[in-house]
Design a protein that fits this description.
UDP-N-acetylmuramoyl-L-alanine:D-glutamate ligase, 34% helix, alpha/beta, globular, 138 residues, five-stranded mixed sheet
């Protein structure tokens, strides 16, 4: 199993809450008990509403995942652990942006820095800076 032997597993909630149907995007919060296997859950506000009814950091803490990352685009992100719920501001970008890959970039950067020993909020700050650097269109 992926979560065995000390591996950390970050899962993006979009795969959990999107229904497997052709056509318009639909979400469903019926995901069973799968969250118990995750170390880190990254989700956006729509996915948070699907899972717990709101994008409130305290409600997301109730999911029981050790680290929850709530990304809110230009409004920044939240890092939620059993001990804290801290807002991390977005890093401003000027001009037009292309958000393609922003969530994946955030997740990968966060995980790399956590694996290197960074605390959750510091890893989220570096992730926000990295996303900002890739958003700016040439």
């Amino acid at each position: 199993m992926l979560a065995d032997e000390g591996r950390q597993l970050l899962v993006d909630a979009q795969g959990l809450v999107r229904t497997a149907a052709v056509g318009p995007l639909h979400t469903d919060g019926d995901i069973g008990d799968v969250l118990r296997y995750f170390e880190v859950l990254k989700l956006n506000d729509e996915e948070a509403v699907t899972l717990v009814g709101s994008a409130d950091p305290e409600g997301l803490r109730a999911l029981g995942v050790p680290e929850v990352l709530l990304t809110l685009g230009s409004q920044g992100s939240w890092v939620i652990t059993p001990e804290l719920a801290e807002h991390v501001p977005a890093v401003e970008t000027r001009g037009p942006v292309d958000p393609t890959g922003a969530g994946d970039t955030y997740s990968v950067t966060y995980l790399v820095h956590r694996a290197e020993g960074a605390e959750p909020v510091e890893a989220a700050r570096v992730a926000a800076e990295t996303v900002s650097s890739i958003l700016a269109m040439p």
